[in-house]
Amino acid sequence: MSCPVTGKVGEQCPVIHAVNDDEFDDLKPPAGEEIGTEPENQNESDEDGDEKERGPSILDVFDFDEEFKDEIPSVAEYKKLRRITKMITGFYRNGTKTKHEQYEQSFGDLSRVESDILQSKRQQEVLESQAQRFNGHLKYKEYLKELEDEQANMKEQRDAINKTCEHYKGLWLWSTEIVKICEWLELNLDDYCMKNLDLPAYIKNRKIPEVPALTQELIKYYSKGLDEIMHNLNESRDFFQASVDGRLDKYKLIEKQIIEVQLKALEEFPTENNPRKEYIESELNEDLKEIDDQLSKAELDETKNRRQKMLKMHIDFIQVLRFFREKLHLLDEDVDKVYDPQFTTKFGFE
Prior knowledge:
Blueprint: H1 64-67, H2 75-129, H3 131-134, H4 138-196, H5 201-204, H6 216-245, H7 247-266, H8 275-298, H9 301-327
Helix pairs in contact: 2-4, 2-9, 4-6, 6-9, 7-8
């Protein structure tokens, strides 16, 4: 199957967005937008006179095998599924916005370097056009050499920035498609539950958009996308699992030791008239302080609770996506399990 970003067959698709601690607040579902949200008046009754039940908390723990042992979910399960599905969509929608901003910033940097190269080339052209007039002057040759060196350096910068720009562009384009897949899954969940559940009137009476039919090619395309989402979430879950079970702290401690052995080695050399040692020690000590701050922060109850919530949230995300595949049998086509290793970070310390 071809990559949706480049169109090349066998191309590795990027894992688009790994969540971190700072993004926790962005994962809250939009207020008042979801199908399972009750009216503001919680005492209002539906047409049958039954009091409307309050929706489930997003922090309720999912037990996939227990909650989804029946093919058709309960109304409470539907509300929870719907809420978490919207959170997943919002999560990747926010990621898409971030990647687009990063692409635009890198594209701006690329444009500035291109402009600088043109300026330098124009200076060179003007000088070379009057070679007969200036050729015998030492400064003429000096300026030409400086311009040639400057252009060579700027071209290296341009190539590096262009690589970054293409990287963010690929993430943005692929992330845009991921959001479409999430939105399609939302529509399928609503459609399925509207047809199979005895829902309260305030839910049943809401107008639900029709689910767009997919061609066989799009089914494979979306199946690959869903696989990428699940892989991405598993990677992020591993990060938070590592932060909870101690592997992340061990990772940081090893990083601290890497810095300390270098500082120890530098002690063997004199400090006086040694600008390199002074500079390197300053850089390493700054890195060491950052690691110590991170390890201290990890001991705070606030940090521990936050990481526990993030871990549970990722587990819920994965459980909901399993529901789509294993219960609704959506996008369960076989896809190549090929992921770009540059977007993968595993904490494998035992």
